[in-house]
Amino acid sequence: MDVDDGDAGLELVHLLRRITGRLDLMAAEFAAANGLHPTDLRALIHLLDARREELAATPGWLSGKLALNSASVTALVDRLVRAGYVRRTRDNRDRRRVLLTVQDEAIRLGWSFYGGIITDMVDAMREFDGAELAVARRFLDRMHDVVRADKPTNPVVRLVPLDEATTERLLSVAVHEARPTDVMPTQDGADTWTPATENAFREFHRSHFHGANGTVMYAVESEGSLTGMIRMARVSQDEAETGMWLGRSARGKGIGTAALRALVAEAAAAGVRTIVADTTSGNSAALGALRTCGATLTHHGDDVRAELPIG
C-alpha cells in the first residue's frame, strides 16, 4: 500500500523515530560513561526485561535476542560478570542449564542515569486518563509487533502425550516461565511455586495420563524443547474442548497457532467434528491463534466462546 506524505500515520512514524533516536543517543551516552559496549547494554536491557517478566534467561536465550553466536555471548557475559552486573547460576532443576541474573548493582547504575527521564515520562502520562493510556498501549503494542526482530514464523511443533518423565520436564518450564494459575486450577488461587504447588501440578497432570477422565494432555515441543501444554477434553462424541498455556519465552512466536493446528489434526483423527474454547477478550494471543485456525468467535461481555469446525 502506498503511503501519502500527508498521511497522519506517517507523521506518527516520524515522531516515533525522533523519540527512539533520542533514547538511542541516551543509551550511547550511558554506555560510554560506564565503559560498556553498546551490545553489552542491549544484553543488560534484555536481562532486565527477563527479570521483570520472571523469565528464566539463559545464554542460549540471550544469543537469540542479540543474534550473536554462542562464543560471542560467552565473552559478553564474561564481561558483565566481571563488572558485577550479571551472575551465572546453575538451574536447580537441570544442573546442565546456566541461568543469567541481573545484579542489583546494574539496576542501581541504570536508575542513576535513567531515573530522571523515567520519572518525567510517568509524570507526563498522568495528563491522560485510563482510556487514553489503554489506546496508547494498544498502539505501541501494535507498533512493536511490526518492528520486532522475532516475528512469528511457521514453527514446527510436536505434541507429546504426557507421562512421568515429560511431566517433570514440563514442570520445570512452568516453574521458570509461568505462574501456577496459568497452568492449572489452584487451591485458594495460590500463585507462587512451592513444593505443595509443584506436587499439585504433578497430580493434576497425572490424573489425565493416557486420556483418563476423557482429557488428553500434550506437552508442546518446539525445536527440541518443551514450551507448554495443550489439552483436548472430550465433551461429546463430536465435540472437544481445548485450552493451552505457553512459557513466556515461547509466546509471540507462532508456537500457539502451530500447536492448535496440530491438535486439530489429532482431534480429526479421533473423530471430533468441532473444537470449542473459552477465553477472554483481553487474551489477544489466544484470539489470534483461534482466528488463524478458522474459529468463529462469539463475545459475551469480556468472555469469548470459540468454535472451530473440523473438516
TrEMBL record:
Any Pfam family hit: MarR_2
**UniProt cross-references to SMART domains, sorted A to Z:** HTH_MARR
Q: Which UniProt keywords apply?
A: Transferase
> What are the coiled-coil residue ranges?
none
Biological process annotations from GO: response to stress
- One MF term in GO for this entry? acyltransferase activity, transferring groups other than amino-acyl groups
**What is the protein's given name?**
RimJ/RimL family protein N-acetyltransferase
Q: What is the organism field in this record?
A: Actinokineospora cianjurensis
